[in-house]
Request: fold
Amino acid sequence: MISAERIPNNVGLSSNKRLQRALEHWQPKYIQWWKDMGPQGFQDYHQVYVRTAVSVDPSGWAHFEYVKLPEYRWGIFLADPVHDRRIGFGDFMGNPVWQEVPGEFRNQLRRLVVTQGDTEPASVEQQRWLGQRCPSLYDLRNLFQVNVEEGRHLWAMVYLLHSYFGRDGRDEAEELLERQSGNRDKPRILDAFNEPIENWLDFFMFTMFTDRDGKSQLLSLSESSLDPLSRTTRFMLTEEAHHMFVGETGIARILERTCQLMKQAGFSGDVRALGGIDLDTLQKFINLWFSLSLDLHGNEVSTNAASYFANGLKGRAYEDKWDDHRVTEAMYELEMLAEGKLERRHIPMRTAMNEVLRDWYVGDCLAGVTRWNKILERHGFSDRLRLPDRKFNRGIGMYSSVHFDPHGHQLSDAEWTRRKHEWLPAPEDREYLLSIQAEPVYEPGKFANYIAPPQRGVKGQPVNFEYVRTEL
Ligand SMILES: [Fe+2]
Ligand SMILES: [Fe+2]
Reply:
């Protein structure tokens, strides 16, 4: 038996017997999954200083305490309802939002919820070995904070499946625990979530770029006409902000340290000889995770995206900032690849909704890279990090049939094969990163040589606070 109090929630769980029974059935499988596929080596006696969502009150929604990870209180929270909320875009604009799933959109909505839900446990699986080579207790704690919240995001999607999608929803909830990141027979749905995350540079780039795709998707789902979906995703965005903070500041701290080591090595010196991460390597990992995360936004031209918009299932990021919410006439200018040649064409904006969301995403990433470059500037270096062209290294969409370099110049297959490791991590780069991350740093206040300490600790605690208690 699980008691509703063990599951912090604002959905009246204790008075909803049907939902409580469904979750009672699902929860033990979730815990088993967490133990098998969650952080390896940290399921037992380690105590982690994490926040737990206990309400949706903006002034104090989280409670900080030490917990053992499997005992984390994964909860279910919906942002407060908006009085008389109306559909904000598409063909049903102005109608009241839906509190139940309309039969005609049931399959589409289920697919959206399942696809979002699948990414949450996938990232926990991808990151499960990182604790063994963490650069500090502060970073270890941040990793686990992200992990438990991705677990909570799975709960959020499972809540929707159990509450609004009947038997099919219950089956989908089971399958979310059965697929596994990188598993050959039962992989996760989206490619970027099957890539291994074996080192901390991958992790910080993932939380910078792939969690930001999460933000794109959550922003567009939070516009949804299905009100419970909108309210669920709106609260998830609150947590997502911290995940991107972990990624952006993680890279910023590596970059800070790289600048120090560049000065130490002399301007033409080798940062790797001093155990740091050189700018070329940072750039390669940006290229990799940015391009993988662009793919997550789907095809440039998409009838699915058009119908999600028309039916009011998925809006644009910050839909209210647009003037035209029906988008029946508007066109979108896209660089199209036709018979191997690029040309600019106008297509109906509804069919370009993935690209519209990708535009928002690229802008948000660019702002982050600009903040990183301030660090190089402050240290007096003229080098800059940049985002590759959005046609670079694509696996999905029309640009995936041809190769491009990071400046967007087309390449032959042979040239791509010959040069790709100038732009993407090579096996030697990965070996090097593992070599400097071979030993975990578990001493409070100590940091691995390749990363600077953060400017401040978590929730007013000092940087040298014991964020994870590692002794028995
Ligand atoms: Fe998430
Ligand atoms: Fe996240």
